[in-house]
Amino acid sequence: MAKALSTLQKRIYQASQIDEEWPTYNQPTAFHLKGTLDINTIEKNLKTLGQIHPELGKKKIPLFTEDFSSFRKKDRFQKALEFLDSHSRDPISLNKPPFLQASIAILGPQEHLLFFNWHLIAADSHSSRLFLKQFSQLYNGKPSIKKSMSRNVQVIKESKRGSAYWKKVLESANPILELPETSSQPNEDIRKGEVVSDLLNPTLTKQLHAFEKKHKTELFRLLQTAFGAFLYRYTGQEDFIIGYPVDLRPKGMNNRFGFFLNTI
Sign of the C-alpha dihedral, residues 223, 225, 228, 232? Predict the structure, then answer.
């Protein structure tokens, strides 16, 4: 990559080079649109955003279209979803910009699926929201968008200071969490995992907010402490590391694309 990378971006770049065939850092999103869609205007807007934001890697972002209107009405939506799902799994190579994919699945004259897929190194969640906001502004005839100014040197310096601080703080910490295992770990990397989610009931949520207010703390810190106590109970370890992604976007860079997250 031609531009200097921050420490955070270097980490993603090195990891992506190890296994380029996996779409690990893809950030896909899609919109189901009803009504007339001007594809020529969308192509023009993508070009404008590519010029405004050099972090996307190319001044002209290509737009791929696929027409599913010839399928039976009950089948075309599913066919279009399969098409977009396939695109979302295509690895975005950091050696072949742009780092944004754009596609339109045509379901009919008044119905489309609009699809974007970013590489995380070029656009974190804030950047993707900014892109969608600016894309909408351009499409609706409000082109008052300032060109992205490069401040890589500042970001790199701040990133290095942060890395040095945490290396010093964590140099004596035990990086291994000895959780009890119910089965042996595989020798090879199988790239399989699961996400476990649950919702707290309204009564418990209300109690947590009351506790948070009484002790003048934050809900995040309260849940963080509870999670730490949970890990201590299962491991018996009093010293371990818990990482949380935080936004390190420097002041004055809200209109800048890039990856400004780090694990603290």
Answer: negative
Q: Tens digits of per-residue pLDDT, 52-107? A: 888 888 888 999 999 999 999 889 999 999 999 888 888 888 888 899 999 999 99
Sheet holding 26-34, edge to edge: 26-34, 111-119, 100-108, 63-67
DSSP conformation letters of 209-252: HHHHHHTT--HHHHHHHHHHHHHHHHH--S------EEE-PPTT
CB 43 within 8 A of CB 83: no
pTM confidence score: 0.68
Nearest Cα neighbor of 131 from 62, 60, 50, 58 is 50
Helix 125-139, helix 39-52: angle, nearest 10: 130
Tokens of 143: 């082109």
* CATH 3.30.559.10 given to domain 8-139: yes
Domain with CATH 3.30.559.10 in the chain: 8-139
